Amino acid sequence: MNKLISNLLCSLLAGLFLSTTALAFDFGDLKKLDLNKLTDIVKKTESLKPLDDKAELEIGKGLAANLLGAVPLVQNEPLQQYVNKLGFWLASQTERPDINWRFGVLDSDGVNAFAAPGGYVFVTKGLLLRMRNEAELAGVVSHEIAHVLRKHHLNAIQKSAQTGLMSDLAGLALDNEKHGELAKKAISAGTELYSRGLDKEDEFEADRIGVVIAAKAGYDPYGLPAVLQTLEAINPQDSGLALMTKTHPTPTTRLQKLDVLMSGSLDKYATQPQVADRFIQVVGAYAK
Amino acid sequence: MKRIKCWLLLVVLLPIAALADESAETLLNVELKKEPYADAATATNLPAQSAVSVLKRQGAWVNVKTTGNANGWLKMTAIKLTDGRNGAKKSGDSGFGSLFNLGRKSRTASSGMAVTTGIRGLSEEELKNAQPNTQAVNKMDSFASSKSSGEKFAEKVKLKSQQVEYFKP
Predict the structure, then answer these.
(1) Does the pLDDT of residue A125 top 80, yes or no?
(2) Under 8 Å between Cβ of A172 and A134
(3) To probe the interface with A, which of B83, B96, B116, B165 has the most A CB atoms within 10 Å?
(4) How many CB atoms lie within 10 A of CB A229?
(5) Taking a contact as any Cβ pair under 8 Å apart, which residues of chain B between 42 and 71 contact chain A?
(6) Rounded distance between C-alpha atoms, residue B52 and residue B50, angstroms
(7) For the residues A133-160, what does the mean pLDDT come to?
(8) Which backbone phi and psi does B89 adopt, to 5 degrees?
């Protein structure tokens, strides 16, 4: 499989080599070019062609379907509706209030949360039941919303060599014969991200944006730091934490970075509500 | 049999006690403040590794009670949560987690019982082998909210939206 990928990549790069660089360089200069530089050229080219919302949603639905194939939704309508109302309120504070936001609680004891392009956000039961109030849930959901806003998964898919035909991903917007194949590749690469993780910098960025969204929505913005403190106290050997640990920077590092950033700037929102009563009522009714 | 029932009762009751107060310890020498502000008056000084109970949180601060019954505020980052035994890491039994075993070995030390059920889903292997469930994705549409019901949801608990800028990268 790896060989196939590298072959695809090589033919793509070779194609670029011949079609574009030959004009700019004589053969002496060509020797100086390395693969990294060529990859950079590819990246620059594709960054000019963002996916449209429809193609983004198609990939997101594929990722969500794979996730839900691995673990079902919790069967509790009041709980799912509660998380959706919260999510819609949070999303309405952002620059993409009108995309296809969908929020779900996954029936897993694992401690984790996920986002998929187009507006899908998931929190596991294992994480939800460790929270103390709505501000903490808002912090986690806002972190996931931030992944969607900044298109972290889409960008990672587009960077991924696994798709082989990277620059053609933009072609997903077109209804041609290659569409199905491209979507399939993108969804497969995206699903792999749930096991492999995003760039650490994407996680830190989602933390920085997440706490601001929570503050904008009127919550105590320290809900996310409080959850990180909870995660910090879970034994790293705990199997429920394995995937989260593998795919994220340590909670301690994230907590420290947020502490430095938030003190002085978000402190003035620290007395905003944490909404423990409603959270305990809804989640408690489900949990009992 | 009676003994087992007794342990079961303990398994249920112990976590309820833990829901109100979480055990923690100080990470460094700190001033216990009377209010959740850096320039608030100091109640007392606490050396590193002092055991405290977390009563509540506000922003970056936690309201704690010391073993000597002093009550005051510490920065969240000045403590780590523990299970109350020698600072050993616990299973993150905060929130409702303290009421349930959440499917893993826990409470072995406090109850003498190992309760283990399977962790369901979301291992790398399961993600890899998952068959797409588009029906479940469509089911999510039925739970979807709207902008207006989100606003009502916020109004009910007096959440007020604020103008806050994102942090510069």
Answers:
(1) yes
(2) no
(3) B96
(4) 25
(5) 57-61
(6) 6
(7) 95
(8) -70, 140
Residue B71 φ/ψ region, left for φ over 0, alpha for ψ in the -120 to 50 degree band, beta for the rest: beta
Contact B127 A195 (CB under 8 A): yes
Provide, as residue numbers in chain B, all residues whose Cβ is less than 8 Å from the Cβ of A268: none
- Chain A, nearest residue to B22 by Cα: A230
Amino acid identity, residue A219?
Answer: Y
Q: State how far the Cα of A145 lies from the Cα of A56, in Å rounded to an integer.
A: 15
Find the distance separating the first CA and the last CA of chain A, reported in whole Å.
47
- Give tens-digit pLDDT for B92-132: 556 765 554 443 333 333 333 333 444 444 788 888 888 99
Does the pTM surpass 0.90? The reply is: no
Residues 6+ apart with CB under 8 A from A4: none
Q: Distance between CA A136 and CA A222 in Å, rounded? A: 8
Separation of alpha carbons A106 and B116, rounded Å = 20
Q: What's the alpha-carbon Rg for chain A, to the nearest Å?
A: 21
Q: Within an 8 Å CB–CB cutoff, is residue B167 touching chain A?
A: yes
Q: How many residues does chain A have?
A: 288
Prediction ipTM score: 0.79
With contact defined as beta carbons under 8 Å apart, do B101 and B115 qualify? yes
Closest Cα of chain B to A85: distance in Å?
Answer: 5
Half-sphere exposure of B97 (CA within 13 A, CB side): 31
Helix (H, G, I), strand (E, B) or coil at B145: coil
Per DSSP, A49 falls in state S
Which residues make Cβ contacts (< 8 Å) with residue B169, sequence separation at least 6? A205
Contacts of A64 in chain B (CB under 8 A): 137, 140
> What is the C-alpha to C-alpha distance for residues B98 and B20, in angstroms, rounded to an integer?
10
What's the pLDDT at A174?
Answer: 59
Query: Given the structure tokens 């399939």, which residue do they identify?
Result: A184
Using CA atoms, how far apart are residues B7 and A94, in angstroms rounded to an integer?
Answer: 50
pLDDT in the model for residue B138: 97
Q: CB B144 to CB A215 under 8 A?
A: no
Confidence bin at B85 (pLDDT 50/70/90):
very low
Which one-letter amino acid corresponds to residue B23?
S
- Taking the C-alpha atoms of residue A188 and residue A193, their distance in angstroms, rounded to an integer, is 9
User: What burial class does residue A169 get, using C-beta atoms within 10 Å of its C-beta: 0-12 exposed, 13-18 middle, 19+ buried?
Assistant: buried
CA-nearest residue to A68 within chain B is B133
Q: Which residue has the higher pLDDT, A6 or B83?
A: B83
